[in-house]
Amino acid sequence: MKSASPAERRQAKLLLPEFGAYTPGILRVEVKTAESLKAHDETWGTSDSNVWQSDYSLGHHSRKLSKVMGDIGTTRGRSDRQIMLGRVAGLLHDVGKLDEACRIYRVKRELTPEERAEIDKHAGISGDYVLKQMSDVRPEDRIFLADVHPIVRYHHAPWLIRDPELRELGFDLKIADIFVSMMEHRHRPGLSQFQAVEALEEVVLRMMKDATLGKFSLEIQASMQTIMNKYGVDRNVIIIK
Ligand SMILES: [Fe+2]
Ligand SMILES: [Fe+2]
Predict the structure, then answer these.
(1) Which of 172, 143, 176 is closest to 158 using CA atoms?
(2) Which of 29, 71, 114, 221 to pair with 5, CA 20 to 30 A apart?
């Protein structure tokens, strides 16, 4: 595996708090994506203090999700490559929201069910973005991105991923996405980390009604418990107003 040049790594460090792509091609994709997310955050900002998205930004959400994917991967004893797949997928999963087709996303209020259905298209657009990156990277990076693609494309419906290994990473991403979103201030105050874990357990229980997801859900629950222990979450933390 070739490593990135010092200049590429310096640039990555500025944009990605915990970058870690192991080939220059993937690192460049990560940096390019991080730059677009940063530009988006600067345009749409987090300036309104009391409205939807007040403390939420696409760049922050994506970087945070990437980090949580690293934690989950480590907790679950995944290989370096699997952890990297999860982290890159975490950074890229919502990049489709930058597309014109998702401009409704930029309104600062809670979305109607119709608008929500509209914005759900971003998963497919994010998948297309991953495919587009494949044209100018080397063969080994192309193989890597080909594995990132289904995780990103189906991050709302990971059970549609055919490959079992990638499907597992897709479930990690879905659960991590819910977990991270619950702690953000969007159209309602964010939960504390402890509350998010508790709320997540309810989500997981709901998912368990589907027998095929049951075993996996229990594993996720265990992973989240480990993460909660790791962060030393204070039980007395309450909803941030
Ligand atoms: Fe999404
Ligand atoms: Fe997301």
Answers:
(1) 172
(2) 71
The 3-state DSSP class for residue 69 equals: helix
Size of the chain in residues:
241
CA 152 / ligand 2 centre spacing (Å): 10
Closest ligand, as measured to the CA of 124: 1
Q: What is the mean pLDDT of residues 84-101?
A: 91
d(CA 129, CA 109): 27
Q: Is the pTM of this model over 0.70?
A: yes
Query: Range of 61's domain?
Result: 6-231
Residue 94 sits in a domain of what CATH number? 1.10.3210.10
> Residues 147-168: pLDDT tens digits?
999 999 999 888 889 999 999 8
Residue 148: name the closest of 10, 13, 17, 23 by CA: 23
SS3 assignment, position 189: coil
